[in-house]
Amino acid sequence: MADKMIPLADLRYAAAMPRVPAVSVPPIGLLGDTLGRPLRDLRISVTDRCNFRCSYCMPKEVFDKQYAFLPQTSLLSFEEIARAARLFVAHGVRKIRLTGGEPLLRKHLEVLIAMLAELRTPEGDHLDITLTTNGSVLARKAQALKDAGLNRITVSLDAIDDAIFRRMNDADFPVADVLEGIAEAQRVGLGPIKVNMVVKRGTNDDQILAMARHFKGTPIVLRFIEYMDVGATNGWRMDEVLPSAQVIARIAAEFPLEPLEANETGETAARWRYRDGSGEIGVISSVTQAFCHDCNRARLSTEGKLFLCLFASQGHDLRALLRGDYSDAQIAGAIGLIWQARGDRYSELRSEGAAAPSAGAERRVEMHYIGG
Ligand code: SAM
Ligand code: SF4
Ligand code: SF4
What we know:
This protein is about 30% helix and about 15% strand. By secondary structure, the protein is of the alpha/beta class. The chain has a single domain (about 10-370), classed as TIM Barrel (Alpha-Beta Barrel). Strand 12 (about 305) and strand 13 form a beta hairpin. Helix 2 packs parallel to helix 3 and helix 3 runs parallel beside helix 4 (about 140-150). The two termini are about 30 Å apart. Residues about 1-10 have low confidence and may be disordered.
């Protein structure tokens, strides 16, 4: 029906038309923003649709049958995504994460992965290509994803108890199917696998230990994410955030832990390992310990808007350039100008009390659209 096809998100999320420099300087991979942060990580949302209705992301009351998801023509095509990705790589991006919505709902995603797997850094290295999924159709798709060149995978799983999991995903989806997806991903070699659990106090915090017990002794790295005030629809409240320090304390009371060094700069998770050598866990403290100072992530939305922060309310309309009469050099030049002007550090401002969690929330971009 025509009325369902109105691309509401186009209107909802303002996007500036990027400025194309008169003279394009070829990218040298050394771009820095106003806080000196490099551009290393590109997250690409390949669909705004999802078969789950996690209340912290796509609450059922808002994302119901009437909700106008983007029409197919608004989505970046695989060719457009691959072209944009190539220009980002020239600017220094080394890691690409496909996300959404539920990325595995995008038809023929393995074709896009194969295109991205062909890209090389200026030094001739392969990129690190990864994907975040709710795992619902992973058992069926893992082999094709691996064959196409996907390196690793992160699976979101908020509970190991079936009843709690079905409630969290609000689509009555059974936990057994996600576990089967994880097992298949392991079997085909999409490791090391990470499992992300968003912790909501009073909703699934009683699953922290159960989840730790389940994955302890496996190569899977379980990571606990603080529930964030992202978007405008999840009714976020600080008292539903369980600080990561408490997550660690609860686990350490049963299984002694010791901290590990970060793998790389810009890593979002603080790493811990079980003292008995039976595995690693991580905590992502986006609320209580902001990590904006080395945030090197850019996000490309489903319809090709570039966002410089998860909490941004404005994007930059790269699709207009990709579909316009612009050369690669011009588009790369525009991306360079956008990154060089970046000063976003929302979580730090929130911690310093300079940004109220509700400030501008009504205009803030939604997680399923921008990608987590
Ligand atoms: N559908 C895929 C999935 O769930 O893995 C990929 C997209 S989802 C938006 C990416 C990640 O964002 C998931 O791990 C999800 O749990 C997390 N996320 C969504 N809303 C969140 C919130 N309000 N606070 C913290 N994490 C959130
Ligand atoms: Fe879907 Fe992922 Fe959002 Fe849950 S977190 S509603 S699985 S996009
Ligand atoms: Fe990066 Fe924005 Fe998150 Fe800070 S709040 S870590 S700048 S995405």
